[in-house]
Amino acid sequence: MKKIFTFSAVILAASMLLMSATTNNEPTSTSGVEVGDTAPAFTLKNVDGKMVSLSDYNDQKGAIVIFTCNHCPYAVMYEDRIIELHNKYAPKGYPVIAINPNDPEVQPADGFEEMQVRAEEKGFPFAYLFDDGQKIYPAYGAQKTPHVFLVDNNQKVRYIGAIDNNPQEPENVTVRYVEDAIAALEAGDAPNPDHTKAIGCSIKYKK
Q1: Is there a contact between 195 and 148 (Cβ–Cβ < 8 Å)?
Q2: DSSP code string of the chain
Q3: Averaged pLDDT, 43-70
Q4: What angle separates helix 177-186 from helix 73-89, to the nearest 10 degrees?
Q5: How far is residue 100's CA from residue 147's CA, in Å, rounded to a whole number?
Q6: Contact 120, 48 (CB under 8 A)
Q7: Is the Cβ–Cβ distance between 114 and 102 less than 8 Å?
Q8: Domains plus CATH for the chain?
Q9: Taking 50 as the threshold, does the pLDDT of residue 58 lie above it?
Q10: Residues 47 and 123 sit within 8 Å (Cβ to Cβ)
Q11: Which of 137, 114, 126 is nearest to 82 (CA)?
């Protein structure tokens, strides 16, 4: 009887894990770009209603492409830092391009109209684009919000990962990954590290 009970418990636990894996909103694929790959092109609608393409930034030294959103606590914690990144580095040739990858049917707080409201509330000085149809974030391999892809003037991906090493306490940040990566590019060097783990919320999509 004990063996039968143990076997049944194992089956039950496995079934619960399978149900959890198939009902969560976290992408199962990790495909996307690697450092050194060409950044996937995109043309997406900005909160001002205009269409914005990655190629619109060809005259820049690069771009800080950040997949982010309205509702995620981590994205909210980083909003001011993303604004600061743009204000500091756009004049140096590295503007921020923010992209909301979430499906608003799964997370209504991330709908396009809600994006417009949030952009106005925070005074976003950068493009805030909607990945309608969710075709762009899988091409990049974004997994979290926020998730950074630093692109150079040849549209090559040079850094992937987190903005810095302390989401919760900006005053206690000790490593600024994106800033360090840009400094390396400006010096003609390869960023080191060129890949870190993005910390944030899973991207929300329909099964």
Answers
A1: no
A2: -HHHHHHHHHHHHHHHHHHHHHHSSS-S---S--TTSBPPP-EEEETTS-EEEGGGGTTSSEEEEEE--SS-HHHHHHHHHHHHHHHHHTTTT--EEEEE---TTT-GGGSHHHHHHHHHHHT--SEEEE-TTS-HHHHHT--EESEEEEEETTSBEEEEE-SSS-SS-GGG----HHHHHHHHHHTT---SS-B----SEEPP---
A3: 98
A4: 30
A5: 11
A6: no
A7: no
A8: 29-202 (3.40.30.10)
A9: yes
A10: no
A11: 126
User: What is the C-alpha separation between 81 and 93, in angstroms, rounded?
Assistant: 18
pLDDT tens by residue, 20-54 = 333 233 333 458 999 999 999 999 999 999 999 99
Structure tokens, 173: 């940040």
- The pair of three-digit structure tokens given for residue 68, joined into one six-digit string: 């982010």
Structure tokens at 7: 């076997």
CA 54, distance to chain mean position in Å, is: 15
